[in-house]
Design brief:
Elements lengths: L17 H4 L6 H28 L3 H12 L4 H8 L8 H37 L18 H15 L3 E2 L5 E3 H4 L24 E3 L5 H10 L5 E10 L10 E11 L4 H16 L5 E8 L2 E10 L16 E10 L1 H6 L8 E8 H9 L12 H4 L13
Parallel strand pairs: 1-4
Antiparallel strand pairs: 2-3, 4-5, 5-9, 6-7, 7-8, 8-9
Amino acid sequence: MVPRKSRAFVPRDESLFCWVRNRPGRAQEEVSALSDEIIARLNSARAAALEAVGRAAGASELEEVRIRFLGRSGEITQVLRGLGQAPADIRPELGRRANEVRVEVERALAEQAARLREAELELRLLAERVDITLPGTVALPGTLHPLSLILLELERIFTAMGFEMAEGPEIETDWHNFQALNIPRDHPARDMQASFYFTDDVLLRTQTSPVQIRYMRAHAPNLPVKIIAPGRVYRRDDDATHSPVFHQVEMLVVDKGITMGDLKGVLGVFAREMFGRKTRVRFRPSYFPFTEPSAEVDVSCAMCGGVGCRVCKGSGWLEILGAGMVHPRVLRNGGYDPEIVSGFAFGLGIERVAMLRYGIGDIRLLFGGDIRFLRQFHPTGEGRVEA
Ligand code: FA5
């Protein structure tokens, strides 16, 4: 069996009190000397603590001071801990004094923390000060895009004549975009509208005419059909008067007894409202697979009043849209009987109308987003631009 080692006596408490405690029968002078020494030690800790608090220049330094004096093994905490072993006659007095020092240092810490916070705030406010003498940022009043202005105007004109607004998808099937409109797969008319295909049967629509088919199929055999359908369309075009993305407005009327005279009447109202009261309308024979007969429609040039100028290339007329009487096959594909009803339709390019109305020479200006260009337009349509 291993003999137990005898343990040497090591005093666990090395505080100032241990020698007094270990000496019973101590003299009164010794106790009061001890008391004085403890008080002196407390006072010097207090002075050191207050000085360190005063010097602390930030929250982390202040925390270091707190730990040094009031932390678990801080200088003041040590004295407070040791008091339990102090002789009973001096313990209350020393305790009171030690607590006073602790409270005083705690208060100094709190006050310094508040001062530092305030100084920091002051600095921040100074740095963030708003200079009210600087010139302000002027919020420019917005204007509607010229295409939006034309579209609003078209809506106003046609809804006043009792038309309803309709719309269709920009990603269209080949059947709706071409076949139902009497343009079979191998028809040469497709060459005029080269498109962007997703598959053989799905493409970005090249015209708003498929909305005719969609609307008729959703509403047949109800009468009358009287719609305008504005929207974005896509073609593989790109020059000063043709954009790969542009906008059309489709118009369709189907009812009993509709004639070409109705088409002329509606277009006349539209042209005078859009381009001015003196505007005249001219029909030229043309061809579209989905209308028969078909026409290109010109309006007299609003720039020169029809005498000939740069904008109308001297002819006095400007082409604005394609139109015609709805082909019987198209009516049938829409679910209507061409023996009972007839109809007319047109499709116009909104960019074309905007260019004529505002005298814009290059279609690309409408898509460039240049604020100097766009700011010139306002709802009255005044202030034509020379581009
Ligand atoms: C058509 O698209 C027919 N769907 C119009 C129609 C509807 C005729 C109903 C009969 C009945 P067209 O390809 O001509 O027709 O285009 C009509 C208008 O769109 C043109 O007059 C022109 O103003 C405009 N347009 C055509 N291609 C472009 C383009 N790439 N950029 C800008 N505008 C264009």
